[in-house]
């Protein structure tokens, strides 16, 4: 349906299709920006053999666990904005690398809680120490004001959809 007129006539659909340009679509632009962030992440951590093996998703899990302990899988999924199957796969890989532990909750035996191992905590600290460089590199083309505005707009967009 046409936003301005409410019309869904064939000629209106055709006009909208003719005006469609992939490169101007927000989803496409966000995907490209995400690729740029991943490239910068890889470059920032490339000089350290151990950190170079960590993906951006694994980094997110390690960073959240560095900030909080004894998180349930559900809470960790919420804080990292990951679905459970994705998180479970990541946790298996982090567990096999000796970076996290998964144990039954002492407070409620129905839940499993995730924590960093000492090795995981040390790696998370090394990753976090340079994390700001990724953001600086990604946002470098923008002025300070534009960087602030972009952050605010993205926060509003995410909160508007996720609450």
From TrEMBL:
UniProt entry keywords in alphabetical sequence: DNA-binding, Transcription, Transcription regulation
Protein origin, superkingdom: Bacteria
UniProt entry tagged with the keyword DNA-binding: yes
GO biological process: response to stress
InterPro entries noted in UniProt: HTH_MarR-typ, MarR/SlyA-like, Tscrpt_reg_MarR-type_CS, WH-like_DNA-bd_sf, WH_DNA-bd_sf
Domain HTH marR-type intervals: 16-159
GO molecular function: DNA binding; DNA-binding transcription factor activity
Alphabetized PANTHER family for the sequence: HTH-TYPE TRANSCRIPTIONAL REPRESSOR YETL, TRANSCRIPTIONAL REGULATOR, MARR FAMILY
Protein name (database record): Transcriptional regulator, MarR family, putative
Annotated organism of origin: Roseobacter denitrificans (strain ATCC 33942 / OCh 114)
């Amino acid at each position: 349906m046409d936003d301005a007129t409410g019309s869904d006539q064939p000629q209106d659909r055709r006009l909208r299709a003719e005006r469609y340009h992939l490169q101007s679509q927000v989803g496409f632009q966000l995907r490209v920006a995400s690729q740029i962030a991943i490239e910068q992440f890889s470059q920032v951590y490339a000089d350290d053999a151990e950190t170079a093996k960590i993906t951006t998703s694994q980094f997110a899990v390690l960073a959240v666990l560095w900030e909080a302990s004894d998180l349930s899988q559900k809470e960790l999924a919420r804080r990292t904005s990951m679905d459970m199957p994705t998180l479970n796969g990541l946790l298996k890989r982090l567990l096999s690398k000796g970076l996290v532990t998964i144990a039954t909750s002492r407070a409620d035996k129905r839940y499993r809680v995730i924590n960093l191992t000492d090795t995981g905590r040390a790696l998370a600290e090394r990753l976090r120490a340079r994390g700001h460089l990724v953001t600086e590199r990604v946002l470098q083309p923008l002025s300070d004001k534009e960087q602030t505005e972009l952050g605010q707009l993205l926060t509003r967009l995410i909160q508007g959809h996720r609450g």
